[in-house]
User: What shape does this take?
Amino acid sequence: MNHALPTLFVSHGSPMFALEPGSTGPALALWSEALVRTHGPLRGVVLMSPHWMARATSVMINPRPTTWHDFGGFAPELYQLQYPAPGSTALGLEVLGLLQQAGIAALADPERPLDHGAWVPLMHLFPGAQVPVVQVALPVDAGPQQVLELGRALRGLRDSGVLLIGSGSMTHNLNEFFGGERAPLPYVLEFSRWIEAALQRGDVAALLDYRAQAPHAVRAHPSEDHFLPLFFALGAAQDGAVPQYISREVMHGILAMDAFALQAGA
Assistant: This one.
């Protein structure tokens, strides 16, 4: 095992990302293969998705989570997909303990399934479904600072072979989704590249205030839920970590599929 793992932010886009990987899916697979070559086999994945929101911070301890098709109106073959990764009660309880040690009230959920914000990107990252997965709920009233603190409470897991992932979307205005492929809308690129520049210079204060400072922030995210997992990955990363971009693809003109690892600078 090498030094501490990076953390990861991945945009999971539409559920159809499972069947239509674009360039992002293969890029995630190559990245995970390189991660395992460098660091050795993973002990587990701890992931936050906006498709599990709870009134209180909650942690999956289900040892055999099912694949939840928590969406409607998509191609029939999408509902046949299964991602039979194991859970880990032990890792879930470890996560719970770390949150409680940090003064964060947290509850265990022994029945939680894997929502598509988890299993869709994980199908590309770990197609063998061999890595145990634990999900952490996004509190319904959380803002960027609170989610950052959730990540910080768990950053020590990176030293023991646990990959911490924030799964959301770099842009997520579904009111503008019309299907089909088209050129990226300018605001999508302007917002995404502003976030990238802030990450590159390590400007956490600007990122926390992205709603006021980033161009087109409210248009890119009419609600914050799909952007907040970025702060989970950011909080869990080493101080001063810099982004290693895996993808800057834009699907359907509006869904920025940005994915990046946060790791120690050279």
